[in-house]
Design brief:
- The protein has 191 residues and is an all-alpha fold.
- It folds into 2 domains: 55 residues, Arc Repressor Mutant, subunit A, CATH 1.10.10.60; 113 residues, no CATH class.
- Helix content is 72%, strand content 0%.
- It contains 10 helices and no strands.
- The longest helix has 24 residues.
- The chain starts with 10 loop residues before the first helix and ends with a helix.
- The model has no long low-confidence stretch (mean pLDDT 89).
Length: 191
Protein backbone atom coordinates (compact mmCIF):
# COMPACT_ATOMS: atom_id res chain seq x y z
CA UNK A 1 0.00 0.00 0.00
CA UNK A 2 1.36 3.37 -1.01
CA UNK A 3 0.65 6.18 1.47
CA UNK A 4 2.22 8.94 -0.55
CA UNK A 5 0.14 12.06 -0.87
CA UNK A 6 -0.76 13.38 -4.31
CA UNK A 7 1.68 15.99 -5.52
CA UNK A 8 0.95 19.51 -4.40
CA UNK A 9 -0.36 21.79 -7.14
CA UNK A 10 2.38 23.75 -8.81
CA UNK A 11 2.56 27.40 -7.89
CA UNK A 12 2.28 28.33 -11.56
CA UNK A 13 -1.08 26.52 -11.74
CA UNK A 14 -2.42 28.57 -8.84
CA UNK A 15 -1.15 31.76 -10.47
CA UNK A 16 -2.78 30.89 -13.80
CA UNK A 17 -6.08 30.13 -12.10
CA UNK A 18 -5.96 33.41 -10.14
CA UNK A 19 -5.26 35.35 -13.34
CA UNK A 20 -8.09 33.64 -15.25
CA UNK A 21 -10.57 34.16 -12.41
CA UNK A 22 -9.64 37.85 -12.17
CA UNK A 23 -9.78 38.24 -15.96
CA UNK A 24 -13.24 36.68 -16.22
CA UNK A 25 -14.58 38.98 -13.53
CA UNK A 26 -12.91 42.05 -15.01
CA UNK A 27 -14.01 41.31 -18.61
CA UNK A 28 -17.56 40.70 -17.36
CA UNK A 29 -17.62 43.95 -15.38
CA UNK A 30 -15.66 46.27 -17.68
CA UNK A 31 -15.80 44.72 -21.13
CA UNK A 32 -12.73 44.10 -23.26
CA UNK A 33 -11.69 47.71 -23.74
CA UNK A 34 -12.23 48.66 -20.10
CA UNK A 35 -10.37 45.68 -18.66
CA UNK A 36 -6.67 46.33 -18.31
CA UNK A 37 -3.76 44.00 -17.64
CA UNK A 38 -2.87 46.15 -14.62
CA UNK A 39 -6.37 45.89 -13.14
CA UNK A 40 -6.52 42.14 -13.75
CA UNK A 41 -3.08 41.68 -12.16
CA UNK A 42 -4.13 43.78 -9.17
CA UNK A 43 -7.29 41.68 -8.75
CA UNK A 44 -5.17 38.51 -8.94
CA UNK A 45 -2.64 40.03 -6.51
CA UNK A 46 0.29 39.54 -8.83
CA UNK A 47 2.64 41.67 -10.89
CA UNK A 48 1.33 42.62 -14.38
CA UNK A 49 4.44 41.06 -15.94
CA UNK A 50 3.17 37.64 -14.78
CA UNK A 51 -0.01 38.07 -16.80
CA UNK A 52 2.07 38.79 -19.89
CA UNK A 53 4.42 35.90 -19.11
CA UNK A 54 1.58 33.37 -19.03
CA UNK A 55 -0.73 34.78 -21.73
CA UNK A 56 1.44 37.00 -23.93
CA UNK A 57 -1.13 39.72 -24.58
CA UNK A 58 -4.55 40.93 -23.63
CA UNK A 59 -5.96 39.02 -26.61
CA UNK A 60 -4.27 35.82 -25.43
CA UNK A 61 -5.63 36.31 -21.93
CA UNK A 62 -9.11 36.98 -23.27
CA UNK A 63 -9.06 33.80 -25.37
CA UNK A 64 -7.87 31.73 -22.39
CA UNK A 65 -10.28 33.32 -19.91
CA UNK A 66 -13.27 32.87 -22.16
CA UNK A 67 -12.65 29.33 -23.30
CA UNK A 68 -16.30 28.35 -23.08
CA UNK A 69 -17.84 24.94 -23.39
CA UNK A 70 -21.57 25.37 -23.97
CA UNK A 71 -22.09 21.74 -22.89
CA UNK A 72 -24.88 21.39 -25.41
CA UNK A 73 -27.06 18.34 -24.92
CA UNK A 74 -26.44 15.32 -27.11
CA UNK A 75 -29.04 15.51 -29.91
CA UNK A 76 -29.55 11.76 -29.62
CA UNK A 77 -30.66 12.17 -26.01
CA UNK A 78 -33.94 13.95 -26.79
CA UNK A 79 -36.69 13.99 -29.37
CA UNK A 80 -35.82 16.38 -32.23
CA UNK A 81 -39.37 17.75 -31.94
CA UNK A 82 -38.33 19.18 -28.54
CA UNK A 83 -34.99 20.72 -29.57
CA UNK A 84 -36.28 24.30 -29.26
CA UNK A 85 -37.49 23.91 -25.70
CA UNK A 86 -34.42 21.88 -24.72
CA UNK A 87 -31.99 24.47 -26.10
CA UNK A 88 -33.76 27.50 -24.64
CA UNK A 89 -33.86 25.81 -21.25
CA UNK A 90 -30.21 24.79 -21.57
CA UNK A 91 -29.08 28.31 -22.50
CA UNK A 92 -31.02 29.78 -19.58
CA UNK A 93 -29.13 27.42 -17.27
CA UNK A 94 -25.81 28.48 -18.81
CA UNK A 95 -26.49 32.20 -18.56
CA UNK A 96 -27.70 31.89 -14.97
CA UNK A 97 -24.59 30.03 -13.79
CA UNK A 98 -21.76 31.35 -15.93
CA UNK A 99 -20.52 34.94 -15.87
CA UNK A 100 -18.11 34.10 -18.69
CA UNK A 101 -20.97 34.11 -21.16
CA UNK A 102 -22.04 37.57 -20.06
CA UNK A 103 -18.44 38.72 -20.43
CA UNK A 104 -18.26 37.22 -23.92
CA UNK A 105 -21.47 38.95 -24.92
CA UNK A 106 -20.35 42.34 -23.63
CA UNK A 107 -16.96 42.07 -25.27
CA UNK A 108 -18.33 40.59 -28.48
CA UNK A 109 -20.56 43.59 -29.05
CA UNK A 110 -17.73 46.11 -28.75
CA UNK A 111 -14.56 44.39 -29.93
CA UNK A 112 -13.67 42.52 -33.14
CA UNK A 113 -11.53 39.91 -31.36
CA UNK A 114 -14.38 39.33 -28.92
CA UNK A 115 -16.88 38.99 -31.74
CA UNK A 116 -14.65 36.46 -33.51
CA UNK A 117 -14.24 34.48 -30.28
CA UNK A 118 -17.99 34.35 -29.78
CA UNK A 119 -18.57 33.40 -33.43
CA UNK A 120 -16.11 30.54 -33.02
CA UNK A 121 -17.78 29.20 -29.90
CA UNK A 122 -21.20 29.16 -31.54
CA UNK A 123 -19.88 27.87 -34.87
CA UNK A 124 -17.94 25.02 -33.30
CA UNK A 125 -20.57 24.01 -30.76
CA UNK A 126 -24.03 24.95 -32.05
CA UNK A 127 -23.51 24.17 -35.72
CA UNK A 128 -22.96 20.41 -35.19
CA UNK A 129 -26.24 20.19 -33.26
CA UNK A 130 -28.05 22.10 -36.00
CA UNK A 131 -26.64 19.72 -38.62
CA UNK A 132 -28.00 16.80 -36.64
CA UNK A 133 -31.59 18.08 -36.37
CA UNK A 134 -32.22 20.25 -39.43
CA UNK A 135 -34.00 18.74 -42.45
CA UNK A 136 -31.48 20.12 -44.96
CA UNK A 137 -27.83 19.86 -43.85
CA UNK A 138 -26.83 22.58 -46.31
CA UNK A 139 -28.99 25.01 -44.29
CA UNK A 140 -27.41 24.15 -40.94
CA UNK A 141 -25.24 27.28 -40.82
CA UNK A 142 -28.16 29.60 -41.45
CA UNK A 143 -30.37 27.75 -39.00
CA UNK A 144 -27.69 27.76 -36.28
CA UNK A 145 -27.17 31.51 -36.82
CA UNK A 146 -30.89 32.19 -36.46
CA UNK A 147 -30.98 30.09 -33.29
CA UNK A 148 -27.98 32.02 -31.94
CA UNK A 149 -29.75 35.31 -32.74
CA UNK A 150 -32.55 34.30 -30.42
CA UNK A 151 -30.51 33.06 -27.46
CA UNK A 152 -27.98 35.89 -27.71
CA UNK A 153 -30.73 38.47 -28.08
CA UNK A 154 -32.41 37.12 -24.97
CA UNK A 155 -29.11 37.16 -23.08
CA UNK A 156 -28.38 40.73 -24.17
CA UNK A 157 -31.77 42.04 -23.08
CA UNK A 158 -32.02 39.94 -19.89
CA UNK A 159 -28.47 39.84 -18.50
CA UNK A 160 -26.62 42.83 -19.99
CA UNK A 161 -29.13 45.59 -20.83
CA UNK A 162 -31.59 44.26 -18.23
CA UNK A 163 -34.79 45.30 -20.00
CA UNK A 164 -37.42 45.13 -17.21
CA UNK A 165 -40.01 43.11 -19.19
CA UNK A 166 -37.37 40.54 -20.18
CA UNK A 167 -35.93 40.34 -16.66
CA UNK A 168 -39.46 39.90 -15.26
CA UNK A 169 -40.19 36.81 -17.39
CA UNK A 170 -40.07 33.51 -15.54
CA UNK A 171 -37.99 30.67 -16.88
CA UNK A 172 -41.16 28.84 -17.93
CA UNK A 173 -42.45 31.88 -19.81
CA UNK A 174 -39.19 32.27 -21.70
CA UNK A 175 -39.18 28.60 -22.72
CA UNK A 176 -42.84 28.89 -23.74
CA UNK A 177 -42.25 32.02 -25.85
CA UNK A 178 -38.89 31.17 -27.39
CA UNK A 179 -38.94 27.38 -27.62
CA UNK A 180 -41.27 27.27 -30.67
CA UNK A 181 -39.23 29.94 -32.49
CA UNK A 182 -35.94 28.12 -31.97
CA UNK A 183 -37.68 24.88 -32.93
CA UNK A 184 -38.91 26.40 -36.18
CA UNK A 185 -35.48 27.81 -37.00
CA UNK A 186 -33.83 24.43 -36.53
CA UNK A 187 -36.37 21.92 -37.84
CA UNK A 188 -39.13 23.49 -39.94
CA UNK A 189 -39.29 22.56 -43.61
CA UNK A 190 -39.06 25.51 -45.95
CA UNK A 191 -41.06 25.76 -49.14
Amino acid sequence: MNDTAPPAPRRSDATRHAILRAARERFAADGYDGATIRAIAKDARIDPSMVMRYYGSKEGLYAAALDVDLRLPDPGAFDAREVGRVLVSHFLDLWEENEMLTAMLRVGTTNQAGAERMQGVFRDQLLPLARHVCPRPEEAGTRAALCASQVLGLALTRYVLRFPPTVALSREEIVEWMGPTVQRYLTAHRA
